[in-house]
Every structure is written in structure tokens, then in C-alpha cells.
Amino acid sequence: MHSSSAAQRLQRLRVITSNLLKQLNWQQRLLQFSSNHIGLTIVMICGIYICVQVLFVRAFGIDTTASIARVQAQRQIEQLSDTSSDSIPLIAASLITRIVIPAAEINAPVLTVGMIPTTSTGEQEWNIARYAVGHHNKTGIPGQGENIVFSSYASDYGRIFASLDKAIPGSTITVYEGDVAHNYTVISQQLVKAPHPSMREQINDSAIISPTKGEQVTFITCWPPSGSDRYSSYLVVIAKP
């Protein structure tokens, strides 16, 4: 009787020991697998994170940039309205409110800009809006059948036109008057030698900003935005309805 009971206890002990050994062996294999593949795991996690970031930028990046630009542009208007000096360059709200060029990832607010005198020659040049696209106040409005001229910075103050060169013929451009959208298609892109390149973007070429027989939009920025030949030319993009 006692012998049978002792044998049963011994058998149970063997089963428990076997199960413990199996469990320890499984845990060791799991730890070994994790150790051997920890590098791969980290790479996979980083890859997933990067993919999520890229998708986020694709989905929200343009709108976020545009929101920041609108805030900066509004501050610019408010700062100028706080002073009564006649020497302040003309920058004001525009009937044209927004420019969207998907091919160039441009989605920016629009301000009206006017001519200001240069300090060195006494001539005039177009002021350039900061953190926004400047609509030249002596040029057209959508629907009027005229040349509608816009300019902005490519290397400073938000770099709104840094990617304007991606607006190639066939690209779509939308000009908004409030909620009213006017669509245009790019027909040409060219570089025009700048007669007086400087740190300020001098948009003085009358051939570029002069009235046209039919409606078109003209986008101008000094180009290239960097390098030894910085600002040596105007990048001019023209689109028509």
C-alpha cells in the first residue's frame, strides 16, 4: 500500500518536472528568437512609423502648410494696418483668396501687393508678399479676360514658390475668389533673364506683367532659389482657362 502511494507521488513529480522543463525550454526558445530577430523587429517598427508619417504628410501636409501661411499673412495685414505711415508698402486683403497648384504642392493664401520705390534708383518695383502669394493690384481678376499676375518668394518667407518649377504644361491651377473656383491649365513655363537681380525679387519686366488680349494667369518668382546663379532669372509659369 505504501509502495503504491510512493510510486504515484513519484510519477506525479516526474510529470510536474517534465512540464517545467518543457516550459523552460519554450521560454528559452522564445528569448533566443527575440534576441536573434531584434534587429529585424526594430527595422520593421521603424518602417511602419515612416510609412505612417509619409501617409500623414500626403494627407494633411499641404493643408497644414496652407493654414500656417494664412495665419502669417493675416498677421502681415494687421501689422500694416496698425500704422498710418504713407511709406508703408501696399499689402492688403485680396478679392482672390487662395491659389492651389496640386502638381507643385502649393496651397497658399493671396494678398494684394503694389509698387514701392527702390532706395537706390528711385524706380519702382513690385512688393513681394511674405508667407503668401502676391496678386499685383494693377492686373486682372478672374472672369475679366485680362492678365492676372502673381508673385511670391522661392527661398524666403515661407518659400511658397520653391516648387513652382513642378507646374509644367498640362498642370491644373485653381484660383479662388472666396468659395468660387476658377480653373486654369498651364500652357508654358520659361526662364526669363532678370535685368536687375537682387536680394529683393524685382518683378519689373513689362513684357511679363503687361495686359494680354485674353485671360491668363501669370506666376513669377526669381530663379533659381539657391546656388551661384541665384536669382539670375525669372521663372514664369503661364496658364489659361
Explain what this protein looks like in three dimensions.
By secondary structure, the chain is of the alpha+beta class. The chain has a domain at 85-240: Sortase (Sortase, Chain: A). It has 3 helices and 10 strands; from the N terminus they run ααββββββββαββ. It has helices at 2-36, 38-81, 206-209; strands at 91-101, 106-113, 115-117, 124-126, 133-136, 147-151, 172-177, 180-193, 216-223, 233-240.
CATH superfamily of the domain at 85-240, by name, is: Sortase
Distance between the termini: 105 Å
> Globular, elongated, flat, extended or rod-shaped: what is the shape?
elongated
Roughly what is the average pLDDT, rounded to an integer?
75
Secondary-structure content class: alpha+beta
The gyration radius over C-alpha positions equals: 32 Å
- According to CATH, what is the topology of the domain at 85-240? Sortase, Chain: A
**The biggest beta sheet, please?**
8 strands, mixed, barrel
Low-confidence stretches: 56-65, 80-89
